[in-house]
Queue: 3 jobs
Job 1
Amino acid sequence: MARQLLQQCTVCKAWCLETTCPQCGGNAQAAAPLKWSPEDHRAKIRRTLNNVATPEWSASIPTLPSVEELRAGHGNKEEE
């Protein structure tokens, strides 16, 4: 099973990517459990129940503005 990269020290509560805290040398453990197991055998069923394959679902996902839109918006703010 895949291990989560983000770790939290059990002693000083610092965040790190190693299993040993670089600040205090304490033990670090996974900050949160993985949401889904990589070996999830029911993933296909869950995707079917949530209608992930439908065009309506993919259209409902919010999108970020394009680079051109961001640049145009940034230029307008400078002019003001």
Job 2
Amino acid sequence: MRFPTGLHALNHRDFRLFWTGQLVSLIGTWMQSVAQAWLVLELTNSPFKLGLIGTLQFAPMLLFSFVAGAIADRLPKRRLIIGSQAALLVQAFVLAALTWGGHIQYWHVALLATVYGLANTLDMPARQSFIVELVGKDDLMNAIALNSAIFNGARVVGPAVAGLLIARYGVGVAFFLNGLTFLAVLAALLGLRTEGFPRARQGRSMLEEIVEGVTYAMRTPRILLALALVLAVSGFLFNYSIVVPLLARDVLRQEAAGFGLLMAALGAGAVCGALTLAVLGRGRPPVAALTVPALVLGGVTVALAAVRHFWLAAALLLVMGFCGILFMASANTTLQLTVPDELRGRVMSLHTLVFAGVTPIGSLLVGWVTEAFGVPVGLVIAGGSGLAAILGLMAWWHRWSDRTRGRS
């Protein structure tokens, strides 16, 4: 069976297995994300402490992403991903057990969020750099788009289901079901034929390899631009796990089910964006494919501050989801199609650092501003700061391009 153009990455057997396992697992991941945010608000009623959980969950990426990238370039990627996914399975079951046993406290959530962050720090550069080995460079953008589609399709299904389950059975069931879904991804990984063996090493130390990857990224303008834009967007505009539950509860006066529907709207927009890329995307994206969605995302974040109606908020979150996935998939593809194969793990660890590693800083900022001044002010500051950073990077890129054309 041959898949049509928009699904042609699925013609690769190993990617098809990998993709199917991720589809199941990611639904559980989004269920746990919603349940964890709601649990923290129930335990503490504090936006700042909710932001602190985000900080603890993503701080390991800020501290250890360089090391994780070097490890991904040194070890077989399939085995590394199996280990990280197994750790995430255990983390989910421990959360479920503590919740169902009635022993859950805020410090438990904080500690387990840190464990999640450590496992995810190893997982992300290995998983992202593994995709090109499953499909090859010609089908890479389609594979990234299809991965984005299931990631964000899960964002539609997971939060909606989680909201209904939490309302009826409590948060523990969401953690337990997430643990079960990791069995699917582990089964898929065990069935792969591709190991993702590293390139032959040249006797350099890990520190020397890390410096080599960072130096290459800093000296390659297109990679530097993509990483800087991801830094700005993830730091200021991707704090959904903080903004959306507070918007739902404090501004729109919604319960868990309404919160789940808002997260589902965000995911639905992202699915539409991913499917658009799957059908139309081919080759390395132009710079405008990064800058235009980022600008729209910043503008919509500011606009959301004025919204007081549930369905208007859902519509704006739909647009945010669409633009967010166009931006992130384009940035990911730009990096992977620009970097040499032997540096891919290290450059993708830089992507992990700026995508997820700076989220702790953004989470703390948004949590603090929101607790001090309210949700609308937090949205305006986050959106306005993101827009200013993106416009500044666009100006730098145009100046560099003009100088390059002038020398040619």
Job 3
Amino acid sequence: MKRRPTQTDVARLAGVSRATVSYVVNGIDASQVSSATRQRVLQAVDALGYQPDALAQSLRSGWTNTIGLLIPDMDNPHYWHIAKGVEHVAQAEQYDLLLISSSLDVDREMHSIRALSRRRIDGLILIVSYFEEVRAEIQQSHQHRPVVLLNTFIEGFDYVQIQSDVGVHDLMTHLLGLGHRRIGFVYGVANPQIGRNRLMLYEQALQQAGLRVDDRLIATCGTTVEDGYRTTQRILEAEPRPTALVVINDLLAMGALRAAADRGLRVPEDLSIASFDDINLARYTLPRLTTVAVDSTALGQTAARLLFQRLRDPNRAPQHQTIASRLIVRASTGPVPDSDGLR
């Protein structure tokens, strides 16, 4: 294996001292080095392919030019869009991104926060699923570096949240306006507290329409497409069956679409299906999904900007940002079937 070039090698090729090379490559005390000498050092750096040691630089400066991001689930494209937004801002700031997934497991989530906290990184963005269980770990980490939270509130922290109220209200108004009265809810979450606001708003919308909340039409399940498929199969066995389903996210809605097809139900002629997030695949399902859209990339960008603003100004007051949601009506929702309409 070829030996990695050192500052001593650069100094020898450029005909200068090692200290001079250090001044140039680390940007220290530039007044000590003439323009001609600096040019010779940079030419030697190019010729040898020398790269400064990142760890040594971070120890000298106190900065690592790295931030960490914790996401709950590698399989859900919603979180990848968030990561993309964070990475976009990090690259613009000339920072690297360290990404960890908790795999929707409470022990893994706690371990991941601890692991990130032990690393030499300048700040953290955390999306947690088990808030109460890991609250102490988050607060401990915050003592040593800036932390931005997504959809989780702790006093004194910067955080970004999704404004879901309007989107859920518009979705339920849409389905009720189409004549649906038996509307099921597929609640696929790792922790019952996740997405609780969406379930509560669904129940409120039914009650405000003078309808009873039927617990048989609310099905809690896991977080995979297969979970969405099996749970939809089960909920469609209710008599009378629902004429519309609200699914907690687009990923599970894909399982719901398949379950309906396997039962011989047409979407939306026999069953309307709607969901949340508007991941890219929602535009390519058959039929295309009606969904409450959240700009996940903007969510990540907003969180990252808050983090870098905090890094530049550690003493400013905690900042709170909101990302709006909006209903996008596509082909997966339609009027209630005639036999189930109001007479």
